[in-house]
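RETRY 2/3 - previous attempt timed out on the joint model. Re-submitting the same 668-residue input unchanged.
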Amino acid sequence: MAVPERATLLWLFRTMATIRAFEERHMQEVNAGKPIGGGHSSIGEEAVPSGVCAHLTDRDFVASTHRGHGHCIAKGVDVKGMMAELLGRSTGVCRGKGGSMHIADVSKGMLGANGVVGSNLPLATGAGLTAKLRGQGQVSVSFFGDGASNQGTFHESLNLAAIWKLPVVYVCENNMYAESTPVEYSTSVKDIAQRAASYDIPGVIADGMDVLDVYEKAGRAVERARRGEGPTLLECKTYRYFGHFLADDPHRYRTKEEEDGYRARDAIATFKKRAVEGKWLTAQEMEAEEKQAYSLMEEAVRFAEDSPPPSLDDLLTDVYVSYPRSKA
Amino acid sequence: MTTTTATRQITYGEAEREALREEMRRDPNVIIMGEDIAGAAGRPGFTDAWGGPFGSTKGLIQEFGAERVRDTPISEAGFIGAAVGAAATGMRPVADLMFIDFIGCCLDQIMNNAAKMRYMFGGKSRMPLTIMTRIGAGVGSAAQHSETLYSMLTHLPGLKVVAPSDAYTAKGLLISAIRDDDPVIVCDHKRLLGRRGPVPEEAYTWPIGKARVLKPGKDVTLVGISLMTGVCLDAAAALAKEGVDAEVIDLLSLSPLDDEAILTSVKKTQRLVVVDEDTPRCSLATDIAALVADEAFDYLAAPVKRITAPHTPVPFSRVLEQAYIPNAQRVVDTVKGIMG
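RETRY 2/3 succeeded.
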């Protein structure tokens, strides 16, 4: 495997570190009772959005899941606006009307987290149709979990994208659990990538704890899409360190030993070690990046807390384009 | 303009095809996608086999090609959802849902994505999506191809729902729907598709949110929707012979609702009969009755009456199906019962 260039390595590390810092800070704020509604932590899965979105620009599209903070950050959504959104403030990226599960920034090609498992795959497919019709080499990415691969929308979307040769990369973040249900119970195949065979498209497995493996395989899929050769199913084997939602105790359905096994392969720690050993980046510069990420979160929380909540008038706005206010 | 001075007569289906053609010429972002909208997709030697399940899109593929007139597999969640995604990213898609009964296959995409995205994203997105679909009983298609169901959709904030009643409003409303930046569901009654009426050749719009008074009257307001507007007109003609002067409102927009048109009329006539082919519980007819009870109660000289389908699925047998659908006689009898 060719090692990416230095700027890419630094971006990958910074993105993973920022996602981790964001998720940790969000969890801390939730535990302090600040954001309403909790959220779904993606700690442990940082390598996947980072490795995939490294290949995308603002003109490309991403459709995300309930566990979507990492996808937003990797797609370049403003972290302060994200934190303000989670705290329900008017300065949030969705003006406080979406929250964690609908966080979005269409101007960055981020078509939204989505609260319905499997619901984003047709959206990403449609964004792929836009890209194809425009013919400007844009690509669309759907992130989804192992659970979503059992929804009809997964199968319908892969079929559509295959027959229409749409520039879509379907990235399955297989973290082994759909809520509390283990993947080996819920899913008829050992590897979700096998399902690509049904649609005669490439099905690729990446180590979702290894950002460079994700980066390399996503790169091939994105290039294939940009060349107009059609979709790819990229399964990234990963792990969420925490429960399905923040208040969920995962030890009701999995062992601590299993968690420790994944934590020992932590994507950020592993990358750091390899980067130092390979002399790609120095320990000091990576530590500086991490420090920077945590201080960015400090700034983001301050920004959010200093921001006003939405005005009550906002209850009725944004329902329709053509009606400034919907009916009370 | 509540009607037209045009003299050229074409069918409702042809009027819709004309609307699609004119909008596709006008805006390269307009695409149409659905099952069999051309037909025989990709098969050498065959093209435009169906031109839509009801022929409404016949000929479009020749002019605009298979990229913009896009046959889909039978995959409603997939292709309706893809239309939502295409609309969110700058296209202006028209998705054809063959029958409204099939909405169960794709409701999540409509309800959770198309209808809510703008609100969830704080007003930072647009959803210029049109879904054309067929409603209504009377053609022997039984319970899964004959529902009216639009009341289910009017319940959802973020969606607009329209139901043309003739060729003229079919073209004007479809053009409005396509040009609209919000998601619009266009409900076409199967039994209207072949009916002819005067339609101007040029493009024009019928504003979404506007009802029209088709026949002024002073004694009772009849509100009709889709095919039921014709039923109201027939009833009004019969009532006229008996000295009752009915006003007929053609609702056209189901969401948003033209509250003003209904209230203005009821305040004048003091009586209201809503004629709706949908089932009655939590329905448009019930909603209109509630609106009038809330806002015009003091004007009423008689109870508001709803003439709807029964709270049953659509039956198959012709005799049962005819009994299911509201008809002019029921309207006449009901009006007589409240004239006092």
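Chain A has a mean pLDDT of 97. Closing ticket.
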